[in-house]
Automatic annotation (TrEMBL):
SMART domains per UniProt: VKc
Compartments (UniProt record): Membrane
The name this protein goes by in its record: Putative membrane protein
GO cellular component: membrane
Organism, scientific name: Georgenia muralis
UniProt cross-references to Pfam families, sorted A to Z: VKOR (PF07884)
InterPro entries according to UniProt: VKOR, VKOR_Actinobacteria, VKOR_sf
GO MF term list: oxidoreductase activity; quinone binding
Record-annotated Vitamin K epoxide reductase domain positions: 28-169
CDD domains attached to this UniProt entry: VKOR_5
Family (UniProt): Belongs to the VKOR family.
Length: 219
């Protein structure tokens, strides 16, 4: 006896619990499916808007396919200063940001575990995008007095991606909520309250559009 404890067995690969081996607390597949579908729609809309912006720059008198009437007019919105707030068409931002969201969604479907800081940062960035999308909607609705269908697609898609990220972060407690608040919020998510709120919000927006332009839609 030397008085020293015998060395324990050397740790093996099977003894180690790696991050990719840790089972997810929640199944986020449908959350990432919603993110993927929404970001793909937004990317398509951003591409169409970008092409239209280039066409308008070359010929301000060009007639766009979505110039339907006085209420639905992509050209009227695109030629307003609000459509190029940063000095270039807002749609260019979608061409840059949406591929990032698509990558996150695909990685999530592949069961990649994201660091907490990464998803919180994504939530903050998309919150800025959400404010920007609704700022343009408000400007179109009240100031420009015309709506762009592709812009509405971007607004709706941005809303869906933001709420999908929020659902993920709440379920994973990325915001470090208190146990009581976290349990309450997750219980609401379990019954689909977030989906109901988004559906109700879209219904309110649709009703507001119809009420404002009913003379155009219904003669």
């Amino acid at each position: 006896m030397t008085g020293h404890p015998a060395p324990g067995p050397r740790a093996t690969r099977d003894d180690l619990l790696l991050e990719e081996d840790v089972p997810a607390r929640y199944d986020h597949r449908w959350t990432f499916v919603a993110m993927l579908a929404s970001s793909l729609l937004s990317l398509v809309a951003s591409f169409v808007l970008s092409v239209d912006a280039v066409r308008l720059a070359a010929n301000p008198d060009v007639v766009l396919g979505c110039n339907i009437n006085e209420a639905i007019s992509c050209g009227k919105v695109a030629q307003a200063w609000q459509a190029s707030l940063l000095g270039f068409p807002n749609a260019f931002l979608g061409l840059v940001t949406e591929p990032v969201v698509i990558t996150i969604a695909v990685a999530g479907l592949a069961r990649v575990r994201f660091p907490r800081w990464f998803m919180v940062a994504a939530q903050v960035v998309y919150l800025i995008g959400l404010f920007f999308a609704y700022w343009l909607f408000v400007q179109s609705y009240f100031v420009i007095d015309a709506l762009c269908p592709w812009c509405l697609v971007v607004t709706a898609s941005t809303t869906t991606v933001f709420t999908s990220l929020l659902r993920y972060n709440i379920r994973e407690n990325s915001f470090r909520l208190s146990p009581r608040l976290h349990e309450r919020l997750t219980s609401w998510l379990r019954i689909g309250l977030d989906y109901a709120l988004v559906a109700a919000w879209f219904t309110v927006l649709a009703a507001a559009i119809v009420l404002k332009y009913q003379h155009v839609f219904f003669g």
